[in-house]
Amino acid sequence: GENVEQHPSTLSVQEGDSAVIKCTYSDSASNYFPWxxxxxxKRPQLIIDIRSNVGEKKDQRIAVTLNKTAKHxxxxxxxxxxxDSAVYFCAAGAGSYQLTFGKGTKLSVIP
Amino acid sequence: GAVVSQHPSWVICKSGxxxxxxxxxxxxxxxxxxxxxxxxxxxxxxxxxSNEGSKATYEQGVEKDKFLINHASxxxxxxxxxxxxxEDSSFYICSARGQGAIYFGEGSWLxxx
Lengths: 111, 113
What we know:
The complex is a heterodimer.
Chain A: E1 4-7, E2 10-14, E3 19-25, E4 32-38, E5 45-51, E6 56-59, E7 62-67, E8 72-77, E9 86-92, E10 100-101, E11 105-110
Parallel strand pairs in A: 2-11
Antiparallel strand pairs in A: 1-3, 3-8, 4-5, 4-9, 6-7, 7-8, 9-10, 9-11
Chain B: E1 4-7, E2 10-13, E3 19-25, E4 32-38, E5 44-51, E6 57-58, E7 67-73, E8 76-81, E9 90-98, E10 101-104, E11 108-112
Parallel strand pairs in B: 2-11
Antiparallel strand pairs in B: 1-3, 3-8, 4-5, 4-9, 5-6, 7-8, 9-10, 9-11
């Protein structure tokens, strides 16, 4: 089955700096890669996703890049703000969108 | 995005009893829903895939007789934790595919005392 590795597990950045979270996946059949933001005790919120026919996608301060050959994808958050502090999960899936999640990255943005 | 609603948000039950959690897709039809379990400070672990009109597909290590899943309509899947024990206490969350992406319900905190 699919295996998703996510790094780092914790990340602290100064407000205004950029944050980068990286994930690798094992199953070449995976073609859908969403990123979720989860605040304590709440549901994961989809923040951005990318499909394997696209190399990069951007939405305001958030961008995701995908390297199919190397089987890795990354989340980039620019101009970080305190409200960006949360746990971020990457995931990989195919077909019916049964997702396999990474272990999560706790992002802390220091004012 | 698509809306997935989960109920109840919080439930406390006694050991040995059963508790049912509902997952509804409010503005779309979901032939497939997914049930996850999340322990504190850990990732989401897929328990089972719920298929409308057929039996659920359980992940390895998940007891299907303990975690009963029923997906009787295109907008509702239920998870019943039978004969609950304290070790079943956890955050249970469902998701469904809508508008080309996966959206999550609010999650249900289960505490078994």
